[in-house]
Design brief:
Blueprint: E1 3-8, H1 15-20, E2 24-26, E3 33-39, E4 42-48, H2 53-66, E5 71-80, E6 91-99, E7 104-106, E8 109-111, E9 121-123, E10 126-128, E11 131-133, H3 136-148, E12 153-160, H4 168-178, E13 180-184, H5 187-197, E14 201-210, H6 221-237
Parallel strand pairs: 1-4, 1-5, 5-14, 6-12, 12-13
Antiparallel strand pairs: 2-3, 3-4, 5-13, 6-11, 6-14, 7-8, 9-10
Length: about 240
């Protein structure tokens, strides 16, 4: 039976998938919370990794030491940058993931890892610094399906940060620096580990908020995570 692995930082971001797949908690995994279930002929492995890059990378590494899924999907909510064309409740699909913090701050401003001269990873002779690719085929299929379903969707670069942008000024800075459409706290770490293991990786997030001067009253996390999970269910049904 083919496997699809779905990871997210929190239980809220996987609860719909856990219920739909009648997934049961697996006790063999520490420290992440892992569930296994089934959608049609697809075996689902669902992992709650915890927040941030270290939690995500360690959890996905442990999982890929045990499993070789057909596809690894990273999901959850994200904050959209102004000018991205995204709004709260929309879907965002990554064409690449960028580490937004790794680099060096110089008198002339921030510089990426290339300025240090040490890549974050090397695979098949190619050096990867701040940006990591995602599966082109899986991304195209997801975008086309979302459009066919009439969903509001945008594709583009995602930016992974350690400190969420709580001002519009900071969001505009990152969007301009990387050409990003939204930000999150785990995606680039998941993409890097997937690349190391040679596993196709797809990232789909629901937009919970705009990146602006922080105002939780304008956020809608339940809508964002429900939208992303319902879409992932539709996508899995097409595999």
């Amino acid at each position: 039976m083919e496997q699809v692995m779905v990871t997210a930082a929190t239980s809220q971001e996987l609860s719909v998938l856990i219920q739909a797949g009648a997934a049961l908690r697996q006790q063999a995994y520490v420290p992440s919370e892992v569930y296994e279930g089934k959608i049609g002929t697809i075996r689902l492995i669902l992992a709650i990794t915890g927040i941030g890059k270290v939690n995500a990378a360690s959890a996905v590494t442990a999982l890929l030491e045990r499993h070789t899924p057909r596809l690894l999907i990273n999901t959850g909510c994200a904050g959209a940058y102004h000018g991205s064309g995204l709004a709260v409740g929309d879907l965002a699909i990554a064409v690449a993931e960028v580490f937004g913090d790794e680099g060096v701050l110089t008198p002339k401003g921030w510089e990426p890892l290339q300025a240090i001269g040490i890549p974050a990873a090397v695979r098949n002779g190619k050096s990867y610094y701040n940006e990591f690719p995602l599966s082109l085929l899986a991304t195209e299929k997801a975008v086309h399906l979302a459009m066919a379903l009439g969903l509001a969707v945008r594709r583009g670069r995602f930016v992974t940060v350690s400190t969420c942008s709580g001002t519009k000024e900071r969001g505009d800075e990152l969007a301009g620096r990387f050409g990003g459409i939204c930000e999150n706290m785990e995606g680039a770490a998941v993409a890097q580990v997937a690349l190391a293991y040679g596993v196709d990786c797809l990232e789909i997030r629901g937009i919970s908020n705009m990146v602006e001067d922080r105002d939780l009253a304008t956020w809608n996390i339940p809508l964002a995570v429900a939208q992303s999970q319902r879409f992932i269910l539709k996508l899995i049904e097409t595999l």
